[in-house]
Design a protein that fits this description.
This protein folds into 2 domains: 148 residues, Quinone Oxidoreductase, Chain A, domain 1 (Alpha-Beta Complex), CATH 3.90.180.10; 141 residues, Rossmann fold (3-Layer(aba) Sandwich), CATH 3.40.50.720. The protein is 30% helix and 26% strand. The protein has 11 helices and 15 strands. It binds NADP nicotinamide-adenine-dinucleotide phosphate. NADP nicotinamide-adenine-dinucleotide phosphate (NAP) binds next to helix 1, helix 3, helix 4 and helix 9.
């Protein structure tokens, strides 16, 4: 089968296309004929050897896929021909992927494969972040950084689905429009976001900050929190890992909350399946509808991943494996 491979760790430009053996079906897995693979920031970090998971080269990147079930193991709830999305961690940029059945979810008919592949990594992460780690309650206000990105748009849609108001923070007007289309109540510039967020909350501040960006905006994020607010540390796309003077936490009764969905989910069998059970009704009711950005053929996987490196992505960037190159 055709697949995109990382053969050296010099960045996304080094992703190349290769003929590789098709995967074999392991116990409890389903084989998926991949239509679309989601492009995630961890894929980018893996092209540089900067992610916590460091497979030996060559390897096939791709954390998440959407497609059609081609084969099942015995006692599977899925059947051949089902439309599914699933988390893979690796091996997604390929014509076929073996997916643990309990890491997969059925896709409603009206949801495209492009939208489906946007679900696994970011919606499972943001469900864990907002509900389990962030203790989100209906009626709270959530500020989302990187709001037009994968984590950002998932954060907007899940926060809204759970009854929150959302203030989206993004660096360009085009990105702010994506955030509004995803369901944010307000979309504001990175510049001056702390003052704008205070104005929008009548001086009170926000209950939760979703931070996949880090860098020099971190202190202003803490200052944007209301008493008993929580800042969810999700990633560091700005590059710099912030440090904090802990007196700020004490003075305002605020929490900084670490979020590492993957390491949590891998250690707790059945957790991802339970997450899909709570997310599925939101898919069925159209409450979740991930915004899709640019779509690339498999041959252009390098260009797709480069979009995230260059801070250009708006909505979910997708590799469509069946699209002609
Ligand atoms: N903790 C977890 O369990 C977990 C799970 C999945 C992903 N993550 C992490 O979450 C982060 C976001 O992932 P994503 O898929 O949402 O990425 P994405 O779609 O590329 O969005 C990232 C956003 O970061 C902002 N940004 C600020 N400075 C940037 C820079 N120098 N380069 C690139 N982007 C920059 C951009 O928004 P503006 O231009 O609007 O500022 C961009 O939209 C990554 O660090 C990823 O590893 C964590």
């Amino acid at each position: 089968m055709r697949a995109a491979q990382i053969t050296d760790l010099t960045g996304p430009a080094a992703i190349s296309i290769a003929e590789v053996p098709a995967p074999t079906l392991g116990s409890g897995q389903i084989m998926v004929d991949v239509r679309c693979a989601g492009v995630t920031f961890p894929d980018l970090l893996m092209t540089r050897g900067e992610y916590q998971l460091k497979p030996p080269v060559p390897f096939i990147p791709g954390c998440e896929v959407a497609g059609i079930v081609a084969q099942t193991s015995e006692d599977s709830d899925f059947k051949v021909g089902d439309r599914v999305a699933g988390f893979t961690m690796l091996n997604g940029y390929a014509e076929q992927a073996a997916v643990n059945a309990d890491w997969a979810v059925s896709l409603p008919e009206r949801m495209s494969f492009e939208q489906g592949c946007a679900l696994p990594m970011n919606f499972l992460t943001m469900d864990f972040a907002l509900i389990r780690r962030g203790r989100l309650a209906a009626g709270e206000t959530v500020l989302v950084h990187g709001a037009a990105g994968g984590i950002g748009t998932a954060g907007i849609q899940l926060a809204k689905a759970h009854g929150a108001s959302v203030i989206a923070v993004a660096s360009t007007q085009e990105k702010r429009e994506v955030a509004l289309a995803a369901g944010a109540d307000h979309a504001i510039d990175v510049e001056g976001f702390r003052d704008t967020a205070k104005e929008l909350t009548d001086g009170r501040g926000v209950d939760i900050v979703v931070d996949p960006v880090g860098g020099d905006r971190f202190t202003d994020s803490l200052r944007s929190l209301a008493p008993e607010g929580r800042l969810l540390v999700i990633g560091f796309t700005a590059g710099e890992i912030p440090t904090v003077k802990v007196n700020r936490l004490l003075l305002n009764n605020i929490d900084i909350v670490g979020v590492a969905w993957g390491s949590f989910a891998f250690m707790e069998p059945g957790y991802i399946g339970r997450q899909w059970q709570s997310i599925s009704p939101l898919l069925e009711s159209d409450t979740i509808s991930p915004p899709v950005g640019r779509t690339y053929p498999l041959e252009s996987a390098a260009a797709a991943v480069s979009e995230l490196a260059d801070r250009r992505a708006t909505g979910k960037v997708v590799v469509n494996v069946t699209q002609a190159g």
